[in-house]
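Amino Acid Chain and Its Fold in Token Form
===========================================
What this section holds: a protein sequence and its matching fold, both as plain text.
Structure line: whole-number tokens from a learned vocabulary of local backbone shapes, matched to residues.
Purpose: to set a sequence beside its fold so the mapping can be learned.
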Amino acid sequence: MALRLQKSKKEKPHPMKIQFYTILFAITSLLLASCSSGKKALKHGQYDAAVIQAVARLKQKPTHQKATTTLREAYPLALQYHMDRIKTMNLGNDNIRYESIITEYEALNNLYDNIQICPAAKKIVTAQRFTVELNETKLKAAELHYALGQKYLAKQNKNDAKIAYNEFERASHLMQGNFKDCDAKMKEAMDWAVTKVIVLPVEVHSNSLKMSNDYFQNKIIQYLYEHRVSKFVEFYSEADAKKSNTRIDEIIDLSFDDFVVGQLTIEKLQREITNDSVLVGETKVYIAETKRDTVVKVYGKAKATLFVTRRILESKGVLDMKIVDKNTNTVIQNEKMPGAYTWVNQYGYYQGDVKALKPADLELTKGYEMSPPPPQDLFVAFTQPIFTQLISRINQRYSGY
């Protein structure tokens, strides 16, 4: 008798177990870090980390010798490291040098704050806070970006106005929204920078589909209003553009090249079905070996003819999108986007033995002739994939503005 050795399958860990071990690992890592004196970080030249770890250890045990030694060595090195970087950055002339210096001062102030809330650490080192220097550097940065904004705004073109807007915005942010006339300058720059786009209504010459077409149009406008593609692009409906008498830079002209709603096709199908394994009864069979009668099942063949009616309603169309430069009246982009929707109603009946039918065939015989959706609903259905394509194309074009 042969024995088959079956390799046992390794069970996959339950997701809850994975989550538990992940959390446990994170907690363990934090505990190990909090128990560290910072000596290892100091050895690797990570002076800020060494200070913070040493302070954390001194909070737990104010007399911890290794943490005391580490803090006494690490803080002067961290201070010197950041001051050297600040000195080097002050010699540069790039437009973001002051932001880099701000980062260094903030790192030093963070060390000061950590030390100040640990009485044991305050006794070991005298930390310095650079509030005045930090504020002076922020002011220098704001002045620099404001001047750059003025420079680019004076060029009075879209691309430079975008740069100007970003410079004024950065200056305002550095001074927490209260710097000179940045708000007014940002508005002026935005007026130059923004591209204003009108979305013309889609023309459909059908009274019965007007409501659905309006829904399609409003859906486009609503999406563009609610999902800003770029802060330098504004979309308008034709009505809103006229109402506000706004300047228009580009036009999105939409029209259906061709569409059909509810084109009906009827198919009549007939299929012969045979089932060779139909239970037709039972019989007794005498088994000589056991000298007993045994009941066995008797199988036979069943036949049926299935008649199926398929009613297919097709709706499809192609939307033509043209993006036109309003000033030059030239076509910038032209694309065609197809969409389709198929409604199917099928039902049937059979002749012959029901035992020949498979479950799917039997289900068909329970069907019945249904009323098709109204044309308005079919129009909405086939324009859904068109809407998705249209929004994708608009995002692709204007996201880089």
Notes: The two ends are 78 Å apart (CA to CA). The chain is about 50% helix and 25% strand. The chain has three domains: 35-129, 139-193, 207-273+303-398.
